[in-house]
Amino acid sequence: MKNTPPIVHVLLISSLVLTIARGVTLPFVTIYLIEHFLLSQQAVGFVMGIGLAIAIVASFFGGYLVDKLNKKILAAVTVSFFSISFILFPFGDHPVIVILLIALLNTAYNVWSINQKAFFAEWLPVDKRIRVFSANYTIINIGWAIGSALGVWVVALHPLFPFYLSALLAVAVLILLFARMYRYGHGPNSDTNTSFHLNFISTLSLLKSDKRLIYFTLGSTMGAVVFGQFTGYLSQYLITITNQNFAYQAIGVMMITNALLVIILQYSLSKFFKANNLMRWLIVGSLFFVLGLVGFILAGDTLVFWAIAMAIFTLGEIIVIPVEYLFIDFIAPAHLKGTYYGVQNLSQLGGAFNPIMAGFLLTYLFPSSLFIVLISTAFIGLFFFYLGYRLAHEQNLAAQIEEKEVLT
């Protein structure tokens, strides 16, 4: 990426290493909890879901802090807590402690991600922002591919080794941040004054009045139920219909398939995402999600079918995630980027809810009911995005008419 500020390169490298750290451990946490604590499917769903939900709600306030505090200091603080949570995880001897550690880990990473988006907005023009966001998402998937492959090898040596390796990788990022990031000042799009005029209560009032943001967040929440934490509900489903060994193999194959497609297609597709075609792309992406979910129902115990279904599902992910980011980026005021990204991050409550939902459905209904519910959820999310898109379009037209009247 030519003419990209060096601080953006630091953020992208950090993103890669942190994702490797997550990939080493997180895909196997569900199985670790089942084996270590002898929990039921439903209990594991509650442990994962509650921990994620706490983190998501906490990161909403984190988005507000991104607009208020020094972004460089906040980056170092979040990475520090990220590392500490991995160090403490093996010492969690009760499910409640595990819930708190999952909450700490995900809060730290969520605030890091919000802060990173705010950095992009501060240092990059709009046309380059989506390209860098897509590059970052590609890097994240490279990290997941490396991390998951490394995790399979490390966990075979000892079940606790992945946690310690993840912590060391986070420390490496912390060293990089201290060595490189603090030499840079403010970006060309920074707004260091306006955000201080609003306290948290005033900011909440402003957010509640923006119906576009509310609709987009509801749509993103439904989408997160479908594709957020998908390795978690797929692990639960696979253990239910097959066995532990096949579940490990299938998850590994699907994660590699997912990562490779994102790496190959994500960045090149991003140049086609524009303000005037976002809704069309969102419809296409949602349809790929639905087809992929149907594929999961039909895959059975054949690894090739699981890989094909994941490939189709991934096409939806490649399209929907950057488009959702653009929806929020286009409506967020410059001085409230972090806050708006923080609100959008609340949509991850859908990802926190899906292991709970999966545990319930797999316990009390037939296994494929999980995917039937997810297909319905994908269409509901698309409807909310349509409402937000229509409202944003109407407001843009009204603003253009008002501007013409002033000029005449």
Automatic annotation (TrEMBL):
One Pfam entry name: MFS_1
Protein keywords: Membrane, Transmembrane, Transmembrane helix
Signal peptide segment: none
Domain of life of the source: Bacteria
SUPFAM superfamilies given in the database record: MFS general substrate transporter
All copies of domain Major facilitator superfamily (MFS) profile, residue ranges: 7-393
Regions crossing the membrane: 47-66, 73-91, 97-114, 135-155, 161-179, 213-234, 246-269, 281-299, 305-328, 349-366, 372-389
Molecular function per GO: transmembrane transporter activity
PANTHER family for this protein: MEMBRANE PROTEIN (PTHR23546:SF1), TRANSPORT PROTEIN (PTHR23546)
Entry protein name: Predicted arabinose efflux permease, MFS family
Lineage: Bacteria, Pseudomonadati, Pseudomonadota, Gammaproteobacteria, Enterobacterales
